[in-house]
Amino acid sequence: MYNSDTPTRAELPTSAQLLKSTIIAIVAAIAILVAIVLPSEYGIDPTGAGRVLGLTEMGEIKTQLAEEAEQDRIRDEQNAVPTAPAAPQQGSNLLDRIYAEFLVGTAHAQETRTDEMSVTLAPGEGAEIKLVMVKGAQANFAWTANGALVNFDTHGDGGGENISYEKGRGVAEDEGVLEAAFDGNHGWFWRNRTDAPVTVTLKTSGAYSDIKRII
Which residues pair with 117 in a beta bridge? Predict the structure, then answer.
């Protein structure tokens, strides 16, 4: 049983009407692509409408962050240190394992220190400072570009894992608590996109065993 009547031939759209609808749909899709998608996603604005609507800047930010993320990925791969295979435990017993896994590990995790580092970035230059942390360790941080603006990427890597905590563009300063998601290096990458040198000053305090400038 059918609930609707079958349309008659006269009620069906003609070939000309279907062709007209298809052409209208294609033109509308092209207009949306050119006026909205290209400016907002790739910063490409052939009509100028994206700049008026503020979409072009959004696309330029996405493109720039994507380029910097790719540079970060390549840099992390170049800086990655192969993990040495674990040496077989010879003559170990239950007490040795408890000492190594709990007592030593706990002492390492509770190690605290305070540091301050400054880096001066030339226009277009990037720098990276990281803390050596164990999983769950926390470090208070505060950094400032001393009146200028920088792009930053707070991230970590280690043991084959990578994580991005936060990214920002055109930021003058930031502060908070960095908690390591896993054992490894966790910290900040800054890039100076201005036309003048920028000095970034980082202050840290908390549970980490070392602080080092990677780049």
Answer: 202
| 132 three-state secondary structure | strand
Annotate 46-58 with b (16+ C-beta within 10 A) or e (fewer): eeeebeeeebbee
Distance CA 187, CA 76 (A): 12
Place of tokens 């960095």: 178
pLDDT tens, 17-76?
888 889 999 998 888 888 888 888 888 888 888 888 778 877 777 777 777 777 767 776
CA-based angle 209:74:78, to the nearest 5? 55
Q: Return the half-sphere exposure (C-beta side, CA atoms, 13 A cut-off) of residue 1.
A: 1
Tokens 């930053």 belong to residue:
152
SS3 content of the chain, % helix, strand, coil (to 5): 35, 35, 30
pLDDT at 189 over 60: yes
Query: 24 exposed, middle or buried (CB, 10 Å; 0-12, 13-18, 19+)?
Result: exposed
Three-class SS of residue 110? coil
Q: Does the model's pTM come out above 0.90?
A: no
| Cα separation, 115 vs 110, whole angstroms | 16
Tell which wins on pLDDT, 162 or 103. Answer: 162
Structure letter (DSSP) for residue 173: E
| Phi, psi for 134 (deg, rounded to 5) | -100, 160
